[in-house]
Amino acid sequence: MNSSIVNIASTRAFMSQRNSESYAASKGGLVALTHALSISLKGKSRVNCISPGWIDVSNNEISKSDKLQHPIERVGKPEDIAEMVMFLCSDKGSFIDGENIIIDGGMSKLMIYHGDNNWKYGMEE
Predict the structure, then answer these.
(1) Which of 4, 9, 76, 100 could form a disulfide with 27 if both were Cys (CB 3.0 to 4.6 A apart)?
(2) What sign for the dihedral angle of Cα 58, 62, 104, 27?
(3) pLDDT digits (tens, 9 = 90+) for 15-64
C-alpha cells in the first residue's frame, strides 16, 4: 500500500467559541470521515487527519502574550503542519491509520481558570 490521504480539520472540532457551530461541525465531520474512510479504504490507502491549532500564515508580529498562552511558547507555523503531512505520507508513518493528530503547541491541553496567571474572564461581576 503506497497511497495516503491526509485530511486537515482543526482543534475547533473539539473546542469552540460562540457562533462557530458550522465551522466546528464541519471540522468534526472531517475527523469522523477520516476514521470511516480508513476502514473503507483498508488495504488501498491509509487515511489520517491533522487538527491544527493557531497557525500564523500572516507573518505579522505575534504578541508575547499570544505566544506565551501556548505551552510551547509560540504560535504554529505552516511548516509545523507540512512536516506532519510529509511524515504521514512517508514509510515512517506506515503504521498510522485512521488517526487524528492535534498540532497546537499544547494549547488544547491547557486548562485556564479565572485568576490563573492574571487571566480574567471578560464578565462584569
Answers:
(1) 9
(2) negative
(3) 988 999 999 999 999 999 999 999 999 999 999 999 999 999 998 999 99
In whole numbers, what is the pLDDT of the chain averaged over residues? 92
For the chain, state the CA radius of gyration. Answer: 17
- The set of catalytic residues is 23
> Quick one: which H or E segment has residue 101?
strand 100-103
In Å, how far from its chain's centre is CA 6? 12
Residue type, 24: A
Q: Domain containing 69: what range?
A: 3-110
| Virtual torsion, Cα 51, 82, 19, 99, nearest 10 deg | -20
**Taking a C-beta distance cutoff of 8 angstroms, is the pair 69, 118 a contact?**
no
Instruction: Answer for the pair 48, 6: CB distance below 8 angstroms, yes or no.
Output: yes
| H-helix segments, the chain | 21-40, 64-68, 78-89
Indicate whether 124 belongs to any domain: no
DSSP 8-state assignment for residue 76: B
